[in-house]
Amino acid sequence: MDFIEIAVIGIDGEAAEAVGDLFNRYGHGGAVIEATAPDFEKVTVRTVVPGDDPDRLREIEVLLALMGQALPHGLPEPRLQTIGETDWAESWKEHFQVVRLGRQLVIKPSWRDYEPRAGDLVIEIDPGLAFGSGLHPTTQLCLRILENLPLAGQRLFDVGTGSGILSLAALKLGAAFGRAVDVDEVAVRVAEENFTSNGLADRVETAVGSAGDYGLEPWPVVVANILAPVLIELMPQLASALATNGRLILSGMLTDQEQAVTGAAQEQGLEVIDRATIEDWVALVTTRKE
């Protein structure tokens, strides 16, 4: 069966988040967000719809038009092209390269070759179609923060794990054990495959669910890289899962959403102790002190 690829090209972070969410909801296989590290100012967001489903294509086009009217800088016209199913399944891989992030972490797609340097911590990952390659700024921010935390021997609770990339990084950086959860069954399957391919399956457990389902014990490190409205909704559960003097990393928000997320954290007795940014994306490190 042929597919129609829909690509929105050269958009900024706020628009990419909105388009990506739309494509994850209505596209076939979710959204693919492409960027060339380290420049994330403009990205391309892609998805496909079955060629024999013109109604879904039209619905996405209408929603993109409405979204363009609401966004400050609008949206470019989407580019449409017909591609085969095999072409879509393979062509998106072309946009993922080996990426060095921070001092030690190297993200290597499973289909790329790489000769490690001394001290490299290589994470081999198959992101699937939509679950996190390490390229998106929100993931980069979390990786940067994790690299600067004292993780040796620590336990990590990863909420909204996606591809499992943050748990993988924490374990490579010395964490003793991780629990990785996601409400999406496909994401959990992808994460499990990535844990196995990195030889770390025995140090992490996975589950389909969220913070309230599996965070029922104090964790020294909790990380949640999800959309700002979901962070706010889950804040009581995230805070409950955090050990006293632990670190809760919150990512997935834009600068104009930071105040709302910070307020939700403070309502749960959390204090913001660090902040990192890439362009208009923000990540916060919070704690609950004795």
What spatial order of strands do you see in the largest sheet? 10-9-8-11-12-14-13
Helix content: 25-40%
What's the rounded overall pLDDT mean? 87
Low-confidence stretches: none
Mass-distribution shape: globular
Can you walk through the features of this model?
This protein is α/β, with parallel strands linked by helices and 290 residues long. Helix content is 34%, strand content 33%. The protein has nine helices and 14 strands. The strands form three sheets. A seven-stranded mixed β-sheet has the order 10-9-8-11-12-14-13, with helices on both faces. A four-stranded antiparallel β-sheet has the order 2-3-1-4. The radius of gyration is 19 Å and the shape is globular. The model has no long low-confidence stretch (mean pLDDT 87).
The gist of it:
The protein has helices at 13-26, 54-70, 85-91, 137-147, 165-172, 185-197, 211-214, 228-241, 258-267, and strands spanning 2-11, 32-36, 39-50, 79-84, 99-101, 105-109, 121-125, 155-159, 177-182, 204-208, 219-225, 242-254, 271-278, 281-287. The chain is an alpha/beta fold and 290 residues long.
